[in-house]
Amino acid sequence: MNATLVAAFLRQRFTSPIRVGLLLLVTVFPLGGAVLMNTLAPLAGIASPIAFILAAGAIGQDVSSGTLQLLLVRPVSRPSLLVHRWLGSALAATAITMLMLILGSGALVLRGTHPDALDLIRMVLEALCSAAGSAAVMVMLSTLVGGLGDVALFFAALILSQMLEVLGTFQHWDWLVRACAEVHGVLSPQLSWEWMLHGTPPSWFALASWASTVTLALAVGIARLNRRELSYAAG
Amino acid sequence: MPAIVVENLVKSYPRGMGGLGGRVTALAGVSLTFEPGETVGIIGPNGAGKTTLLGCLLGFLRPDSGTLSIEGRAVDDLGVRAATGYLPERLVLDRWMSGMAFMHYHHALARLPEGTRQRDCQALLDRVGLDREAAGRRVGRYSRGMLQRLALAQALIGSPRFLYLDEPISGVDPAGIVTFREILSGLSSSGATVIINSHQLSEVERVCHRVVFVKQGKVEAMETTRAGASHARVLRVRLSTEQVAPPADRLTAIAAEAGASYRGWSPPDARFAVADDAGATRLLAALLAAGVAVTEASPEEGRLERLFTEAAVGRGAGASATPPGGAS
After folding, report:
1. Are B6 and B28 spatial neighbours (Cβ–Cβ below 8 Å)?
2. What structural domains and CATH numbers belong to chain B?
3. Which of A91, A149, A235, B325 could form a disulfide with B31 if both were Cys (CB 3.0 to 4.6 A apart)?
């Protein structure tokens, strides 16, 4: 692993006031909710938005600004760059989620509630999978358009699929509803680790589905970045 | 063995939305070779294809056809990249880093040993004239000239064997230009191949061994800038202000005697047309022999300016031009 690539990428992300502000927004409120409600449940879904914020524009912003050219003159391959940006976003999102879970657990303990260790492990594993999934999708989208166009693409796909889902529900078109659910799954790949708590076998189908979505997103991203022309003369 | 070989390179871009307007050709069969230790300038009017050529050489752009090889390897070979330095025209460096952190970052990306990182980076910053205070400052607070110096220092990391400089002295002060010349001279003697894309013709003429003139995607002319000059030019001769300038008919007579022609008075210079270097020498000798107090003599325009002007308007490349793609 190229630690230089990951460290520089994360330092860049954390020097952006807008990103830091958004990160505070998606972490502080759920943490406050967890303390007030005396449960860690509000922290369950924060990994995905954190990964989204960190990975947005991961490639596209550097393509648009021109900094990617200077980077790719160095002995760094394009696939390696993409994979490291995905890894950086996913690992940082998981780390931040873990920090919030530790802070939330501490607050709960101070209030006399002891979180279940197995449940905490489940939440960390789910955070890791959500962060890896969302980061892969955003990094892939950022290879398709410049700047922060990946954010626009993400929300356009999300809103369109939701509208079509409503249409499908009204018209009783099950195929459309199922297709839209698949699109949602692709936009925000998640994997449940609930089975750990119930002692049931894991869902291999869910695991394969999550893994294939992440792999496909990275493969599409790598293929697109490999074909992308970088000179500003290319327009 | 040439360091870089470009053969029949063709590159076009889609015109209009989604390429509906067809394609516009940026490079139309460019063939060039670059030797180790050679400094080559690429000049030409805007839109000639210079940046596209550089983009293809750096692996940023994919040619439609033709071949590119650097020491026999592909341009995007990681080994080639480890030996490559690049100074971009658009200085969009990582603004959030300090100058030194930026250098450390690129030193690490270049896979150079961590043990020498601080020493190497400091030496390069010293070499381009960025002091320690500037090195500790955020890149976002750099002036244009400082950015240019930092970008040059970055390009020199790892003593590259292939160096691509896009408008390298744009925004640089005179002291920086002198530093730039010294660095290029050192690179050339170390065997590095340097390719410079610039509109600063006088500087290109000064530092390059060879100049390639690109027009409409083709190599229109190549000129060896350090070879003997054999072209006609106008010479400006400055006369001492302590003496009364000779009358025009006398200057005309002296010039005719030396095989040149008097073109008029442009205070404080007299203008003469000469056929070549030898003609310029004969003219100056004749002026001095006639007691004219000459204090300075310089060509009215550089050779490249002439080449540029002639080739840009399609009048050919002059006597010393080589047929397109026909020489290295």
Report:
1. no
2. 4-224 (3.40.50.300), 233-299 (3.30.70)
3. B325
Task: Return phi, psi of residue B127, to 5°.
Answer: -65, -35
Burial degree of B312 (CB within 10 A; 0-12, 13-18, 19+): middle
Q: Which helix (H) or strand (E) holds B31?
A: strand B23-34
Query: Model's pTM, two decimal places?
Result: 0.81
Q: Which residue of A has its CA nearest to B94?
A: A67
The residues near B305 (Cβ < 8 Å, ≥ 6 apart) are B201, B202
Give B110's contacts in chain A (Cβ within 8 Å): 74-75
Residue B326, phi then psi, degrees to nearest 5 = -95, 0
Q: Which residue of B has its CA nearest to A7?
A: B105
**Rounded to whole angstroms, what are the CA distances from B228 to B33, B125, B175, B277, B306?**
22, 37, 29, 8, 16
Q: How many CB atoms lie within 10 A of CB B119?
A: 9
Cβ(B105)–Cβ(A76) under 8 Å? Answer: no
- Tell me the shortest Cα–Cα distance from B253 to chain A, in angstroms: 54
CA distances from A19 to A1, A51, A88, A92, A109 (A): 25, 11, 15, 13, 31
Contact at CB, A74 and B109, closer than 8 angstroms: yes
Length of chain B: 328
Residue A207: other Cβ atoms inside 10 A: 14
pLDDT digits (tens, 9 = 90+) for B225-279: 654 445 667 888 888 877 777 888 889 999 999 999 998 887 778 889 888 788 8
**A-chain residues within 8 Å CB-CB of B111?**
75
Which burial class, exposed, middle or buried, applies to B160 when counting CB atoms under 10 A from its CB (0-12, 13-18, 19+)? buried
Residue numbers in A near B51 (CB within 8 A): 231-233
Q: Could you give the ipTM of this predicted complex?
A: 0.85
User: Within its chain, how far is the Cα of B323 from the centroid?
Assistant: 20
Say if residue A64 is exposed, middle or buried (CB neighbours under 10 Å; 0-12, 13-18, 19+).
Answer: middle
The full DSSP string for A86-127 is: HHHHHHHHHHHHHHHHHHHHHHHHHTT----HHHHHHHHHHH
A48 neighbors A129 (Cβ within 8 angstroms): no
Q: Which of A6, A71, A73, A231 to mutate to test the interface with B (most CBs of B within 10 A)?
A: A73
Length of chain A counted residue by residue: 235
Q: B60, A229: Cβ pair inside 8 Å?
A: yes
Looking at the complex, does the CB of residue B81 fall below 8 Å from at least one CB of chain A?
yes
Q: Check A73 against B82: CB less than 8 A apart.
A: no
Q: What is the largest CA-CA distance in chain A?
A: 63
Look at residues B227, B230, B229, B224 and name the one whose alpha carbon lies nearest to residue B328: B224
pLDDT recorded at residue A67:
87
